[in-house]
Amino acid sequence: VQLQASGGGLVQAGGSLRLSCVASGRTFRSSIMxxxxxxxxxxxxxxxxxxxxxxxxxxxxxxxxxxxxxxxKKAVYLQxxxxxxxxxxxxxxxxxxxxIGKFEYWGQGTLVxxxx
Length: 116
What we know:
Oligomer: single chain
Number of strands: 11
Number of helices: 0
Mean pLDDT: 96
Low-confidence stretches: none
Order of helices and strands: EEEEEEEEEEE
Distance between the termini: 37 Å
Strand content: over 45%
Shape: globular
Helix content: under 10%
C-alpha cells in the first residue's frame, strides 16, 4: 500500500484547507484510514479515522474538521475549517489494513502552516 498526501499549505487563522490522500493497492475499501499530525517539537497525534460510515475525530479538531473517503477513487480527505495556529503541523495519512488498531502504512506527510 502506498499513500500520497497532498493539500497542505499556508493559510491564515480562521481559514480552511482540504487535505487529500490517494492510496494504491487493492485493500483500500476494507482498510481503516486515518489522519495524524506532528507539530514541531511534539509527538505525532491522532486526528481522525474512518471505516465505512463510521469515523472518529480527536477532541482537538472536533467540530472543525471532517474526515471522508471515496472508495472508488481510493481517496481519503480531511476538511479542516476554522484553522488555528496550533493546527500547524505535518499531516500524515495512514492505513490500518488489517483493522487491528495499528496503522501499518504511512504517507509522506503534507505541511499545514497556519499564520496567526
